[in-house]
Amino acid sequence: GGAIEHLAYESLAEHLETIERFTAIAARALHARGRRARLADIWLRPPAFFLKSFLLKFGFLDGWRGLFIAGLGARYTFLKWSRLAALGRGKGA
Fold this sequence. Notes:
Elements: H1 12-32, H2 39-56, H3 64-88
Helix pairs in contact: 1-3, 2-3
């Protein structure tokens, strides 16, 4: 049998739009539960996510795809915590 390639998105643009939408929702949900973002959340969580995904979960074994997925996850993490920080400052997510 051959490898199965699962394409959840039609394009990178569609995936990035989904990240934009979901990070806004996630930030609002965290804000509603009383969570606040610290500067450390914004600057340390994204690289930590990347390292966990790419190294600890062996994403590097998937080559550029693993690198790409780790990068997108780090972007999601950065946007979510940045948007939560903006909500804490009275700005919209």
